[in-house]
Amino acid sequence: MTATKRARYISLVELINEHNRLYHTLDAPQISDAEYDQLMQELLGIEEEFPNWQLDSSPSQRVGSKPLPEFQQIEHEKPMLSLGNGFSSEDIQNFDQRLHRQLDLPLEQEFEYVAEPKLDGLAVSIMYLDGKLSYAATRGDGRSGEDITQNIKTIRSVPLELTALPEKFEVRGEVFMTHAGFERLNNEQQAKEQKLYVNPRNAAAGALRQLDSRVTAQRPLSIYIYAIGVCSDPEFTTTQANLLAKLHGLGFPICPLFKLVSGSAGCLEYYDSLSAERANLDYEIDGIVYKLNDFALQEKAGFVARAPRWALAHKFPAETASTTLEEIDVQVGRTGAITPVARLQPVFVGGVTVSNVTLHNASEIQRLGVRVGDTVVVRRAGDVIPQIVSVDLQQRPSNTEEYEFPTACPVCDSPIATSEEGVIARCTGGLICAAQRKQGMRHFVSRRAMDIDGMGDKVVDQLVDKSLVETVADIYSLTFEQLEGLDGFAEKSAQKLLAAVNESKATKLSRLIYALGIPQVGETTADQLAAHFGAMEKLSQADSESLQAIDDIGPVVAESIVSFFATETNQQVLKHLEERGVFYAQVPVNSNAQDERLQPLTGQTFVLTGGLNAMPRSEAKNRLQALGAKVTGSVSKKTSFVVVGTDAGSKASKAEELGIEMLNEEQLLEILETN
Ligand code: IVH
Question: What number is the average pLDDT over the span 547-562?
C-alpha cells in the first residue's frame, strides 16, 4: 500500500514538474489551472502524511521554506565576469577589428556573433549535480555570491531536476521582473499600504535577496539562462547558438530573441531592429550583448581583467527627461567645500525618480547658464549619477534671474572664500560650522576610518545638534545616559553603540590618520604616512620638506598636512583622543629594513588602476603591502608593475609610455596566491 503511494508520489513530482515546464518555460500549458491545483493538492497531502519522503525536486519547494538567519556565501568555481561596454557603431566596429587582430584573422573573414538582448536584472548561477538543482548563488563580487538556493527554487520556470544533464552542470542567467509582474506587485503593495518599488530591477533584487523564501515565492520573478559555467562534459557544445538551442531543448528558459549574425554589420542591424522593438517588450533591456559564436575562438581570445575579449555589451543611449528646477541649495562638506545642488520637480528617468542633482560649482552653473524656474534636461544612464545636460531656453519664464552664488555659509553664516578660478568655494567657519562638524564626524566614524558600527548619519546629526559633541574626540567621552536619550534609542541600542565606540579605540595608525580628515589626505596617503613615520607624534612634527621626500606627496599635500598639525584645535583633538583611550598598534617604519625573507615583494612598487573583479582594489593593495610591496597612486619610472583592471585610464597609457610591465588581474592573483 505505502509502496504504491510512494510510487504515486514520485510520479506526481515528475508530472507536476513537467506541467510547470510546459506552462512557464514553453508557454504551452496542457492542463487547466484547476487540474494543476488538484495534482498539487494531492502531492501536498502525501508530503504532509510522509514528510520524510519529500524530494528536493518536489514542486512544493516552489512555495518557499523557513526563513534563513542570514545568507551563506558560495564561492564560484569559475568567476562570474562582466562585459566591456560599447556605445556607438564605431565602438562595435573597433571591437570586431580588434578581435580579428587578436585572433590573427583577415577582416574579410567575417566572424559569426550571437546577438542577445542585455537583460536588466540580476546575474545568478545555478548548479545541477547529477541532474538535480543543488545550489544557486548571486553574482556577488564575481568571485563569490550569496546562497539563494531556496529563492531560486521558487521561480517556476527553473527546472528542479532534469534528465540528460552532464553530471556537473552550472547554468548562468538573469533574474528579472516583467513589466506586468512589476505592476501587479506594486498594485498589491499599494493595497497593503506598503512601499512601492521604483523599477522592475529593484523589485527583482528585493525579491531575490529575501531571507524568507516564502516571500520570494509570492513575487513574480522570471529568469532567462544565457551561459554555462562549470560543465563536466567537455564536449557538451561548441558554439553559443547551439548552447542556447540545447539549453532550451533541455528545459531551461532562454530569451527567444537571440540571433546568429554575421560581422559587425550584422550586429548593428540587430541592434537597430531591437531598439525599435524595445518599447514593446514586457521586460527591461539596457542594450545588446554580442558574443563570438565559436567557443574555440572565444577561448583563444581570452579575457582582459574581469571581462572577456570575445563579447561586448552595446548599451542603449542614456535616457533623458525634462523637468523644472525649483531651487538651488548649497551643501557644506567636511572641509567646508560648498556644493550647489539643484532641487528638481521629481522626474522619472533611467528607471528611477530624480529630484536632486549636483551642480558641482559656480562655474558649472555659469556654463549651463541655469536659473531657478528653468526647464532642464536631466540624463541618467544605468547606475551613473544623474546630471543636468542642458537648459531649454525656449521655456524660460520671463521673471527668472541669474543665480547668485552665496557669499556666506547657509549653516553658520561665516564668509565663503572662493578660489581664483571660481571652482572651489569654502565656508571659512571651520569647527564653528555645524555642517562641517557633522561631515567631519561622519567621516571619522565611517567604515574605512574608525569604523564605529551603528553611528549613522542620524546619530551624528543629533550628537552635533544637541551639542553632545564638539569635536571627534568627544565621541570617546559620550555616556550611556546621553546615548539612551537620543531619538530612536533604548537601553540595548545605547549599550551596543557604546560598545562599538569602545571597540574602535584600538585601531591602526593609517586609519586614524585617514579618520582625521586632513584635506588632501585620502587612504593611500594615510597608509604612506603611517608606514613612513610609524607614530602620530612624528607625523605631527614633520615639516613640508620631509613630507615631500615621500613618493607621491607634493607641495600641496605637504602644506595641507603641516597646516593641519599647526592648528591648535587639531592638536587639542589629538591630545583628547589619546587621553580618552584611542591607541594604535605600533607599525614598523619603512626605512628600518624588514626581514626580506618574509617579504617576497620588498623593493617592488605597484600601481593599481581600473576595477578588479575578484576583490576591491583596497584589498589587493593590502595584500600586496603584506607581501612587502609598496603600492602608490601614480606611475613613474620607479614603478615596477602596473596592474590594469577594467576601465583603466591614463595610468595604463603612462605605463605603456614608460615601458613599465603591466599585469592583468589573473597575473595579479597569481602573484598574491603564490607568495
Ligand atoms: S553574458 C562573460 N549575456 O550583463 C559574459 N550577460 O555586464 C557573462 N547580462 O553580469 C555575461 N544579459 O548580469 C550575458 N544576454 C546576456 C546578458 C548578460 C544581461 C548581464 C549579466 C552580467 C552583465 C555583464
Answer: 90
pLDDT at 4 over 50: yes
Mutate to test the pocket of ligand 1, among 80, 82, 83, 208 (most ligand atoms within 8 A of CB): 83
**Rounded to 5°, angle at Cα 217 from 212 and 222:** 125
Q: Which three cell numbers stand for residue 147?
A: 546562497
Identity of the amino acid at 412: C
Contact residues of ligand 1, CB 6 A cut-off = 81-83, 116, 118-119, 123, 139, 174, 226-227, 289, 308, 311, 313
Q: What's the CATH superfamily of 509-584?
A: 5' to 3' exonuclease, C-terminal subdomain (1.10.150.20)
Question: Catalytic residue numbers?
Answer: 118
| Fold exhibited by the domain 84-315 | D-amino Acid Aminotransferase; Chain A, domain 1 (3.30.470)
- Atom number of ligand 1 nearest to Cα 258: 15
Cα 118 to ligand 1 centroid, rounded to whole Å: 6
- How much is the average pLDDT of 261-276? 96
309 Cα: distance to centroid of ligand 1 (angstroms): 13
CATH 1.10.287.610 in the chain is located at 2-63
Residue nearest to atom 24 of ligand 1 (CA): 82
Superfamily of chain region 596-674? BRCT domain (3.40.50.10190)
Question: Using one digit for the tens of pLDDT, what is the confidence trace for 78-109?
Answer: 999 989 989 999 999 999 999 999 999 999 99
Which tens digit of pLDDT belongs to each residue from 363-393? 889 999 999 999 999 987 655 678 899 999 9
CATH fold of 320-428 reads OB fold (Dihydrolipoamide Acetyltransferase, E2P) (2.40.50)
- When pLDDT is cut at 50, 70 and 90, the band that residue 648 belongs to is confident
Residues of the chain with CATH 1.10.150.20: 430-504, 509-584
pLDDT (mean) for 47-57:
90
Q: How far is the CA of 580 from the centre of ligand 1 (A)?
A: 51
pTM above 0.85, yes or no: no
CA 314 vs. chain centroid, Å, equals: 20
- Give me ligand 1 centre to Cα 331, in Å: 38
The whole-chain average pLDDT of the chain stands at: 90
- Enter the C-alpha cell of residue 352: 528611477
Range in 175-179, 482-486, 519-523, 534-538 with the lowest mean pLDDT:
519-523
Residue 594 predicted with pLDDT over 80: no
Residue 597, CA distances (Å) to 27, 221, 594, 628 in order: 65, 55, 9, 10
Per-residue model confidence (pLDDT) at position 329: 94
How far apart are the C-alpha atoms of 462 and 483, rounded to whole Å? 10
DSSP for 524-572? HHHHHHHHHH-SHHHHHH--HHHHHTSTT--HHHHHHHHHHHHSHHHHH
Q: How far is the CA of 137 from the centre of ligand 1 (A)?
A: 15
Name the band, by pLDDT with cuts 50, 70 and 90, for residue 596. Answer: very low
Please provide the CATH number assigned to the domain covering 430-504. Answer: 1.10.150.20
Q: d(Cα 606, Cα 604) in Å, to the nearest integer?
A: 7
Contact 134, 179 (CB under 8 A): no
Site to probe by mutation for ligand 1, drawn from 80, 81, 119, 175 as the one with most ligand atoms within 8 Å of Cβ, is 119
Domain 2-63 homologous superfamily, CATH = Helix hairpin bin (1.10.287.610)
